[in-house]
Predict the structure.
Amino acid sequence: MTEPQPGTPAAPERDLARPDGSTVRLALVVGGLVLAVLLGFGLGRINGDGSPAAAGLDSALADHTHAPGTGAHEHGADQSAAAEAAGLAVTASGYTLTPLGGEFTAGREGELRFQVRDAQRRAVTRFAVVHEKPMHLIVVRRDLSGYQHLHPSMAADGTWSVPLTLPRAGVWRAYADFTAVADDGRQVPVTLGTDLVAPGEYAPRPLPAPAASATVDGFTVGVEGTPQAGLTVPLTFRITAPGGGTPALERYLGAYGHLVALREGDLGYLHVHPEPELVDGAVRFWLTTPGPGRYRLYLDFQVAGEVRTAEFTVTVL
């Protein structure tokens, strides 16, 4: 065999490297089968079939059933993952709550103005309508008293404004609950929080003890259900009119009630999901509490065009 010259490649040993025809055919068949399996797996992930997310959804749908005629839900054990509390920061999911002033005189009406800005610091002007409104503003004092549920108006430049009275001195928490529409059309639900101040002597009120009923303007509201840490459980509110009887509840924000839950201490804001219809004449919600502690619940309901709020304290173990 000729020795290779310096700087030139050695001649290939063709007789040793060449496979026979049957080996080539076998390799092609095996390679084709592997490629088909990989393509099928990839397409399955693209379409959502067989992926962990799709499997979880199928499981959730199997465990999330409605009892005929009631609208009630049954949640399986794999539905017990708790949602984290929101409203603890001014920035989340790429959006920032920017107050345009935040000091008020206790007991005197002022105006709260703010913008929601995106990651490029641009004022956001596109919001989805959720529960019949593009923006829900919840205001409460640090001791969880003085609850208000407001719906600001937005100017063309993305500035939101609403009349606001902080009745007592202290630090108040404001939550902006909204769904922004991103440039690519995605809808991003976000709850952001910021502090407001009414200067003066702060005299915190103790949180009322847990009770199975509350009274507001002569209406008695009873609550059934036991929240549990890390689980999604039903809470049913049954409303009795002054003097007895069941009042004619009216839809408010797309349902027969609206429920806000706040955690004592850090004032974490919990999202609560309502049933769209009454359940045996009562209003039902599904509440997920992320951990033990005391929570304050605020139930808004409407009768004869007037919205009232019943408040409850619950202890979660």
